[in-house]
Design a protein that fits this description.
With about 270 residues, this protein is of the alpha+beta class. It has 3 domains: about 80 residues, no CATH class; about 70 residues, no CATH class; about 80 residues, no CATH class. About 15% of the residues are buried.
């Protein structure tokens, strides 16, 4: 039987002995102090220590010696020095499900585990500032605890190879690149990242747009993205086809036309507001 609160392991046969010792202390120490009044914890501890000496020196009824002599001959030689560090009490979360993005959630933050564990359930232990993940009693990941709710802590080794290839690109970096090309390119990049069922698909499309810049030019890509946004097809295939067919060099689908001035007594005109 393992008591996780104290990190102490007892066998089933030792449990009655431990409980019997507790009962013995209640009878020979606590019961003798029940009618006394104490005004400080230190005073109570001194009284308990005096009665404890008396209890340990009390001779056994059926065995030679007493509890003190038994301790000195049996237990004392087997004792080891106390650990240099205090025992760290851990917090456990069992049955944490690994999401499709190979992250588990703990107190609002997301931590990565090896991607092969997607869909499985693992156990999480937090001791101090360390979070550890266990699958089938084997440690599979360790992270520093983060208090950023909604944030992600990701280890590159946990990612699939295809995800690691695009690790240097983030949504913010992709959108910033699109803005340097032009407003329409940034709009297409943003659409890719927001309308794909998985972010990886959006990354691939955005990197495809980057390849089009090298093949054509930034000016032509911006014109193609403008046309793709007008026809409501802001995807990589549409932009690629527009460039291949040279439609980005065609006149705009909606040329600007000058509206005729409307003369009516109820229309104030722009001069009214000056």
């Amino acid at each position: 039987m393992l008591d996780r609160r104290y990190g102490v392991q007892f066998s089933t046969y030792e449990k009655p002995k431990v409980e019997g010792s507790v009962l013995l202390v209640q009878r020979w120490i606590l019961a003798r102090l029940r009618n006394r009044r104490f005004f400080s914890l230190a005073e109570l501890n001194r009284a308990i220590a005096e009665l404890l000496i008396d209890l340990n020196n009390r001779p056994f009824k059926k065995l030679p010696g007493c509890r003190r002599s038994a301790f000195e001959s049996l237990d004392a030689p087997a004792l080891r020095p106390m650990p240099l560090q205090r025992y760290a009490i851990g917090r456990w979360k069992t049955g944490a499900k690994v999401n499709i993005d190979y992250h588990i959630e703990f107190e609002g933050h997301y931590y990565s585990v090896p991607h092969r564990l997607v869909g499985t359930k693992i156990d999480v232990r937090v001791t101090g500032n360390l979070l550890e993940c266990f699958a089938s009693n084997h440690r599979v990941a360790g992270h520093a605890v983060s208090t950023v709710r909604g944030g992600f802590t990701t280890t590159p080794e946990h990612m699939p190879a295809s995800h690691r290839a695009h690790l240097q690109w983030t949504p913010a970096k992709l959108i910033s690149w699109g803005q340097r090309i032009g407003v329409s390119t940034a709009a297409v990049v943003t659409w890719q990242l927001e309308h794909r069922p998985h972010p990886e698909q959006g990354y691939r499309a955005c990197l495809g747009l980057l390849a089009l810049v090298r093949r054509y030019s930034a000016e032509r890509l911006e014109a193609a993205c403008t046309r793709a946004m007008v026809i409501r097809a802001p995807n990589l295939r549409s932009v690629t086809n527009i460039l291949k067919c040279g439609l980005d060099r065609q006149p705009s689908l909606f040329p600007a036309t000058s509206m005729p001035a409307i003369e009516h007594e109820n229309v104030r005109g722009p001069d009214y507001y000056h």
